[in-house]
Amino acid sequence: MIRVLYWKIRISLRSVTKSESRAFLFFLGVLVSIVLAVVVFFVSRRIFRLILEAAAFGEVAGVGSLWVANLLSIGFFFALVMSLFTALGVAFSTMYSSSDLPLLFTAPLSVREVFLVKFAEIILRASIPTLIFSFPLLAGYGAALPAGAVFYLQSALLTAISVLLPAALGAGLNLLAVRLIPPYRIKELGAALGTLFGAAIYTLMHLGPRHLTGMSMEQALQALEGFRLSAAGISPAWWLAQAAVAASKGDFGAFFGWAGLTFLVSGGLMAFSFSLVTEAFYGGWVASGEVHKKDRRSRARERPAGPSRPGRDSAREGAGTYGPSGDTESIQGFVTGVFLRRSPVLALALKELRHVSRDLREISNGVYMLVMMIVALVGSARGGGQWLKGLGQAVPLYGSLAATFLMSWGLSSSLGLGAVAREGKNWPLLRSTPVTGREIVRGKTLGIVPLVLPVALIAGIAFTLLAGGTRWQLIATLCFVVLVVPGMVSIEVSAGGIAPNFEAEDPRQRASGWAFLLGVLLELLYAGLLAFGVFLAVSNWLRYYDQPLAESRVVSTALGALGLVIVAGASMALFTIMPDVAGRSLDEMEAVEQTPGNGAGHKGKGGAGAGPNAGRKS
Amino acid sequence: MIRAIKLTKTFGDLKAVSSVDLDIQPGEIFGFLGPNGAGKTTTIRMLTGLLRPTFGKAMIGGYDIQTHPVEAKSLLGYVPDTPVLYEKLTGREFLDFMADLYRVDRRRKKNRISELLELFDLSERGDDLIGSYSRGMKQKIAVAAALVHDPKVLILDEPTVGLDPRSARVLKDVLRALAQRKVTIFMSTHILEIAERMCTQVGIIDHGKIIACGTVPELRALSKEASGSLEDIFLKLTGGVEYAEIVRFLEEGEEARR
Ligand SMILES: Nc1ncnc2c1ncn2[C@@H]1O[C@H](COP(=O)(O)OP(=O)(O)OP(=O)(O)O)[C@@H](O)[C@H]1O
Ligand SMILES: [Mg+2]
């Protein structure tokens, strides 16, 4: 078992060092973590110092330690929640979607041992947030006191214990889920829930501070008091905080009491999961990779039962209907040829539509993006309200156009950037067919537009109504959406097609950072062009301003028309040009990537005489 | 129909395929043999335009696959070595999709898809998602997809892997019938019995080089194995099995058990 873990760690390190860019990202991640930890440490030290000083002058002794406990409890709560999410995600990916499961299950390891391996993996990975957060928090507290060396040892112990709980909970919840939810659905469901949780957290983090900034110190402290009430007693965060406070006072009995309580509860949870393991195994863990059958009513019109036809005339059948389609010569044939032959582009579009709409992961990703956009928009609308007022009557229109653009952009980017790489391992098969890269990109764009358009239209309606727009403004917004979305989607699909990552399992990793940046840049240019076009059209036709741009009615109408042409033209141009560029780059690429690190062992020099073993032994 | 001219591919330092020449006539069934890692899949990927040769050319039906990819690929049906397919499509939708990519016209397409599903015994599961298929079913649907547009050249990378005896038989019969209709067939396989019984020509590749090419009797002459089976020829040409090593390996196992 230990060996299995050893190999798992080696393999995950290998995937980091696989390419330079990955190693760089990893390095960056480590650096950011360290910086974060240091920041947490200093902030925590500062805050605790302030509190301790304030408490020294306080009327009632003991208030200081209450505040300290509250703050620590909040900190632990935050860390626990973070680790829980990490643990849930990790548990989910290591226990269900991991490709080594069949291997481990067939190895001479008991189900429980496999579980322990997985559990260790979860702990390792879920401990990252605690390392960045909990420990620096405690250390900051210790430095503020200042505390002795024993305190830091105790803090380390507490931090370690605090990882156990979320890990056990995450593992247990996953095992429970597999009992309750059909295994073939759990992967998709997990991904969907994960992204929704992420969206919720993002919402909280974005909206929360807005409420907090208006608070006075007193109010903040009152809020802390309130938190204590809800957190006390049953909350492990509170226990951990108590343990930390006890440690700072040198009260070993209390420290071990609280820490032990947390440890016991984690142990209990762990034992609970452990007892579930065998159950879960037969209940579906082993088969969690299954895919559901498409539920079709057409099962009713299955082929009538009867002797199948083993190989009967198979040769003739296989070849029987071949032959040139001579009938295309006739007019009728020509007509059907032109109108009924579905083009590859349309076929690709249809396939894309089906693929995305049948994959919960894709959908949840899109929803996540939408939630983030809504939050960001609502948040900034609150702050930016005043500023916008200066623009006069056109505000509802401009505001709703901009908001709709942003929303649609978010969704297009979530679905479009990874569209080419969504082919994944099917890419070689697709490239063996006579479709050009351009057709592929265009097909994918066409497939994604119908997914984005309804949402964009709804967003357009909603934003116009929210901004108090008129009927005309509503119509203008909807026209804008229809005109603009195709261009927007082509930018995203094409940008993603320039550097696709076909290996990515996670939809979000299908496009490289460069592709993302390129997409952002192009969309911004596009937005600028659109803004100019809209401005021309709106200001000349709807005459929202006291001073029209041109006095003459003819000139002003023409300018308005020019605006419209710019808007429509930009979209059309992007829709034609972008797939061309991206398609050409796809055609340049080889359909099978070279795996680096090859050719080190044998150089393929051994010819016929050398025999197969000659080169392979090394 | 299939021509390779000094086809070469290097991965870093590794010469995966070196200077392979092939010329396969219409109606021929060419069996491509070789040990694991010999370069079969790499050659096939160059023939199908999935990899760009480091040197040399691959031609399908007279078109260079690199300079005229669309023309060449229209003639081509390809079955990849691992049947990874669109898991979120049903079998029928997948065939439909592939037919559209090859611009098969709609009226013919429908019949063709039903026939192929019937032929490979997949009609019942045609409306299930491919993700729910067994390995052999995936293999069969991949073969069906390669046939949907009536290809002139069929390139298959180990097509019989995972097939049940009946499906393997159907596939062999279909391939023979196609060859009679002058379709050119190129397949790699590890099943020497198939190669011996079906193929009109056999090429053996080892360490990226073609070490023998011809009909089975020709190869027999080449290896001076007067009555040998293709297996004997293959083992002799590719360096054989080192029996001593196998014996030592087994003995070590024995010792460990004691
Ligand atoms: N994408 C790649 N990147 C780097 N090296 C590769 C790549 N594909 C193949 N190779 C190397 O090229 C050589 C030939 O591989 P190839 O897949 O063509 O063998 P094969 O004859 O098909 O073997 P098998 O019988 O196992 O399918 C091998 O040494 C392999 O390691
Ligand atoms: Mg191969």
Any overview of this molecule?
The complex is a heterodimer of chains A (618) and B (258). Chain A has helices at residues 2-17, 20-57, 63-95, 101-106, 111-132, 134-144, 149-180, 183-213, 217-231, 236-249, 252-283, 314-320, 331-340, 344-357, 360-389, 395-416, 427-431, 437-466, 471-498, 513-542, 553-588, 612-616. In chain A, helix 3 crosses helix 7 and helix 7 (149-180) runs parallel beside helix 11. Chain A is built from 22 helices and no strands. With 618 residues, chain A is an all-alpha fold. Chain A folds into 2 domains: 37-286, no CATH class; 333-590, no CATH class. The longest helix of chain A has 38 residues, at 20-57. Helix content of chain A is 76%, strand content 0%. Residues 287-330, 332-341, 384-388 and 598-618 of chain A have low confidence and may be disordered. Chain B has 258 residues and is an alpha/beta fold. Chain B folds into 2 domains: 2-75 and 151-222, 3-Layer(aba) Sandwich (Rossmann fold), CATH 3.40.50.300; 84-150, no CATH class. Chain B has helices at 40-47, 69-74, 91-101, 106-119, 135-147, 165-180, 192-198, 216-223, 230-237, 243-257; strands spanning 2-11, 14-24, 29-33, 55-60, 63-64, 76-79, 153-157, 184-188, 201-206, 209-214. In chain B, the strands form 2 sheets. A 6-stranded mixed beta sheet of chain B has the order 6-7-8-3-9-10, with helices on both faces. In chain B, helix 6 links the parallel strand 7 (153-157) and strand 8. At the A-B interface, helix 12, helix 13, helix 14, helix 17 and helix 22 of A face strand 2, helix 2, helix 3, helix 4 and helix 6 of B. Adenosine-5'-triphosphate sits between chains B (11, 14, 16, 34, 36-42) and A (592, 594-595, 598). Magnesium ion is lined by residues 40-41, 81, 157 of chain B.
